[in-house]
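Lab notebook: predicted structure, single chain.

Context: the supervisor wants predicted structures on file for every construct in the current expression panel, including those that have not yet been purified. This is the next one on the list. No modifications to the sequence; it matches the entry in the shared construct table.
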Amino acid sequence: MAGSSGFLGRHLLARLRADGHAVDALVRRPPEAAEIQWDPYAHDAVARATDAVADHDVIVNLAGAPLVGNPHSKRWAEAVRHSRVTTTRVLAEAIVSSGTTPAFLAGNGISWYGDQGATELTESAGTVGGSLLTHVTREWQAATEPAAAAGSRVVVLRTAPVFDRTSPPLKQLRLLFSLGLGGPIGDGRQYFPVISLRDWIDGVVHLASSDVAGPANLCCPTTPTNAEFTKALAGLLHRPAFFRVPAPVIRVVAGPMAPEALGSLRAVPATLLDSGFAFSDPDVSAVLATALHR
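Prediction complete. Output recorded below exactly as produced.
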């Protein structure tokens, strides 16, 4: 697993090991027990990663620079893109070089679809638009292609914002709404896919052990609008939510990341549902109740 030190990686690693799986974490520092050192940015990165890939049944990549940063910074935007595309490409090419065909679970984002209004977006839907994260997710997914061409079962994890009280975005939103400063963004009618941390972990474990291949939307089955999300969070925190943020303000403040707040993605986790996965938190009220629970 690459990216095991991140928020999602830490929780997934703990779950897999608790379930009795032997997991080696790919780390850039000197390795400890059950760790393998790698450097995805070295000139011989693929050759080094090839040895790490060998003799493993599943390769998971969750590596990538944090999405929390200065949205107006070109350096930050390039780090977001380069870290995700490079690590995925190196692991995909290492699978090819190894002569083996482990399953490859490759991190990705729900932003792949772009703003498509109220259209229900299953995994068969296309990608539109030119927002920053939509561009990144296209390159990110394309980087998996060598592994798929070599015969590996590749699953692209199109992840919606994952909600837990200890991590963004809920960590910041909980404080804002608790102060009575929450409210809809823009007109509030845009669809905003979400998923609880426990459903994300259970979903990835399910995909790892199934025969599913291709993209998989990791979001709750009923996607809320921004207004519905706002109402649910304010209600659970017993606070008003009257401070509507106008769309022009978001465009100025968020810059290239504004489409993530103002765009509408009515995503549907058809792959998970069709493969028999049962969500613990199927709608926004359940997602937020679970996420806020201590």
